[in-house]
Amino acid sequence: MADITTSAPSVLTNRGRVRVNLRKDFIRNKYVYLMALPVVVFYVLFHYMPMYGAIISFKQFSPAQGIMGSPWVGFQHFSDFFQSFYFWRVLRNTVVISLSNLVWGFPAPILLALLLNEVRSSTFKRTVQSLTYIPYFISVVVIAGMIIDFTQTRGVINDVVASLGGQRVNMLQRPGHFVPLYVISEIWQQVGWGTIIYLAALTSIDPGLYEAATIDGANRAHKLWHITLPSIAPTIIILLILRMGNLMTVGYEKIILLYNPGIYETADVISTFVYRRGLIDLAWSYSTAVGLFNSVANFTFLLTANWISTRMKQTSLF
Amino acid sequence: MKYKATITGTTFDVINHALLVFVTVLTVYPLIHIAAASFSNGFRLMAHQGLIFWPQGFDLAAYRAVFRNRNIWTGYRNTLFMVGVGTALNVILTAMGAYVASRKNVFWQKPFMFMIIFTMFFQGGMIPLFLQVRALGLYNSLWSLILTFAISAFNLIIMRTYFQGIPDSLEESAKMDGANDFVVLFRIIMPVAKPVVATMVLFYGVTRWNGYFWAMVFIRNRALYPLALVLREILVMGTVSEMMGGSVTATDSEQIADSIKYATAMVATIPILCVYPFLQKYFVKGVMIGSLKG
After folding, report:
1. Could you give the CA distance from residue A274 to residue A77 in angstroms, rounded to a whole number?
2. How confident is the model at residue B2 (pLDDT cuts 50, 70, 90)?
């Protein structure tokens, strides 16, 4: 996420000189600034105006009165949310889904990349790669439709379960089944795509290391443990930290397609709650407050993760 | 890497290949299931239990029903418009932003970059964005989707990193000949940066093709529904017979309802699978730039 610390170029002490320099800069770079203009307009309209609009979480917003005209209510909406029954439920579900996805979903591409790395036939390797990337490009709507179809009582998963002597259940009606279904489908969609970065890290390992190890009598397990894993460890650690930064972000687009009131207990997360309260119930200010709580939590996690990873990159470089 | 052929080594190879084949089959199976079921006879499909690897009684009835459906066609048209215009705008604006961000000796370059990166860390949220789009008068128009998602900061950074790797001498010689920055970007840099442009087309194009959420939020008029929203009605809300009401009789639709779902999923997915092989060689590089810098 690059470094966000920006220090304005130190263009001195003397005010007049600054003005002259700024003018010169502006004249010399007029086409660059002209090019920047639409980009700035975009960011103001679709990113910074909504940030300003988020102040309606401290107001009782009504569209007729507008953002400025609506009366202030302070932290009313926040305290309403924190004291409501929903607060713990959506917070818990967000963290549980996100953590389960991390615990199961993070190691999966590493394992797959390591297995692929041991394959010597490049045709076989490339075929496996091309095929496992495909799900990444499939629409979440198609995937949700597939999950709904496969997990219904007469669906293909239940057919298999029944043939093995199990009980048929409509899985999307069972609160206990939601998190596993979500995580498994995420892994299915992301695992191949996730290997790209690890495979790149694996190919950059110096083959000389392996040759030297072979001469010293190391077997494949030794090489995996003493050469391969240490070589990709920095990549693993950086990606892990960045994933932790996204702890409060859950793929709500898929959840909205899959959940139903019967399983809100385990499936309703902060962003799906914001969507329902805001865009269905039209509780503008309340839902904006809940969303702002999520944004601030996210911001804290991301900044921390970014700070740690920047420090790690520095230490690993020297 | 070379290994001596030992017994443990060979056993490992066999197990490894078997595992990889298993993983690949597991990944591809749902797609095979959809494809096979979409070409199946409705009756046979309903009677069938368990895995499907090939069509159960080859039948194109489901596809005929899908192609007779007006909603699918308007959905296609709206999606093509949104993806075409939207992706072109994405690539142009992202390239312009990336160009500005990759300049040296531009006083406001750092604040500009900060403005972009800050949005990756903090957002106003779903509801304020909706209210802003509505305030701009874009509600219930495809332009809401085209303009609101015109630039992704993440993609802009990928492109900037690529631009920074292009030797300065190229643009300096053009500048000597009196070319301005627009000419430098679109005539000199973009042709050299083809791999990253292809990656951008794929990333933006696929996101736009597949996205349903904001279309659901911003668009009310059914005639403007992109394909993803039509799909959502058929696949997720299960309104097959209603959707197909005009084109097939009630009993027919009941019987081919499942194969219609699968055929719809196929019709929406095939275009992406067609472009994918052509762009595959580019995006690996794009992902790497993104994650290394990201």
Report:
1. 13
2. very low
